[in-house]
């Protein structure tokens, strides 16, 4: 199976889950509605990660183009637009994009958001100063993740900020427990990745020549464990 075929097959499973199976649960998780203890830790962890990624971007993004790759319900896109960015926020799930459009403010001053349904690595989305992909690549094997970064890099001028699932005993246990749920209730598997394997893949990928792994930071809040990585233009 080629990397492109593997990526496309995985993309279909992700679309089915987030657009049909789990859209109501995802809408609740990303709102301020009450949730259970486990989901509360996921919500808090996602907020911490979103704020951390925002801290890696300039405070003033006026005139900058930002791709929110795998934007979900649009929380990151909203904050970037408030800093003045022109954000293209794309997600494979039409129902999540509809919800993002519904929740987003209508005016941001100098900033704006263009919500789109589609594949985040589609070159037709345009050229960007920054690409941010929060928890969109956690469902992909390292080779597919590096291939996606290579595709994104072709249309990125400054930096790509992405997250991946770090290989930890806690995450491995969660991954195992997830397999015990009925098939219809399972999300697409999160694939834990060793950071050194991912960074080696980035450094060896011909399509990422001139790019280098830079800052990294882990957020761990209960059932939310995710590692941020900045891939910067040399």
Features:
globular, 7-stranded mixed sheet, 23% strand, Rossmann fold, 234 residues, alpha/beta
Question: What does this entry look like structurally?
Answer:
This protein is globular. A 7-stranded mixed sheet has the order 3-2-1-4-5-7-6, with helices on both faces. The longest helix has 19 residues, at 3-21. With 234 residues, it is α/β, with parallel strands linked by helices. The chain has one domain: Vaccinia Virus protein VP39 (Rossmann fold), CATH 3.40.50.150. Helix 1 packs across helix 6 (142-153). 37% of the residues are buried. The chain contains 8 helices and 7 strands; from the N terminus they run H-H-H-E-H-E-H-E-E-H-E-H-H-E-E.
Summarize the structure.
The protein is α/β, with parallel strands linked by helices and 234 residues long. It has helices at residues 3-21, 23-29, 37-55, 75-82, 94-103, 142-153, 169-178, 195-204; strands at 65-69, 86-91, 112-117, 128-133, 156-164, 211-221, 224-233.
Proper CATH architecture: 3-Layer(aba) Sandwich
DSSP, total strands: 7
Outline: globular
Radius of gyration: 17 Å
The chain-level mean pLDDT equals 90
H/E series: HHHEHEHEEHEHHEE
Helix content: 40-55%
Task: Furnish the topology, listing elements before pairings.
Blueprint: H1 3-21, H2 23-29, H3 37-55, E1 65-69, H4 75-82, E2 86-91, H5 94-103, E3 112-117, E4 128-133, H6 142-153, E5 156-164, H7 169-178, H8 195-204, E6 211-221, E7 224-233
Parallel strand pairs: 1-2, 1-4, 2-3, 4-5
Antiparallel strand pairs: 5-7, 6-7
Helix pairs in contact: 1-6, 6-8
């Amino acid at each position: 199976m080629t990397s492109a075929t593997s990526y496309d097959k995985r993309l279909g499973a992700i679309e089915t889950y987030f657009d049909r199976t789990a859209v109501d649960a995802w809408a609740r998780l990303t709102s301020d509605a009450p949730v259970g203890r486990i989901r509360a830790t996921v919500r808090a962890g996602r907020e911490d990660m979103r704020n951390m990624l925002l801290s890696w971007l300039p405070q003033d993004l006026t005139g900058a183009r930002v791709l929110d790759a795998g934007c979900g319900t649009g929380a990151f896109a909203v904050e970037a637009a408030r800093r003045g960015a022109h954000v293209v926020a794309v997600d494979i799930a039409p129902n999540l994009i509809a919800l993002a459009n519904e929740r987003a403010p209508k005016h941001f001053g100098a900033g704006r958001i263009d919500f789109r349904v589609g594949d985040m690595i589609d070159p037709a989305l345009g050229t960007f100063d920054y690409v941010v992909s929060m928890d969109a690549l956690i469902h992909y094997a390292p080779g597919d993740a590096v291939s996606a970064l290579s595709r994104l890099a072709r249309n990125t001028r400054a930096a790509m900020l992405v997250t991946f699932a770090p290989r930890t005993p806690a995450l491995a246990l969660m991954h195992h427990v997830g397999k015990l749920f009925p098939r219809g209730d399972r999300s697409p598997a999160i694939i834990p990745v060793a950071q050194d394997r991912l960074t080696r893949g980035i450094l060896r990928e011909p399509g990422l020549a001139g790019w280098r792994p830079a800052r990294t930071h882990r957020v761990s809040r209960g059932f939310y464990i995710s590692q941020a990585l900045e891939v910067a233009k040399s």
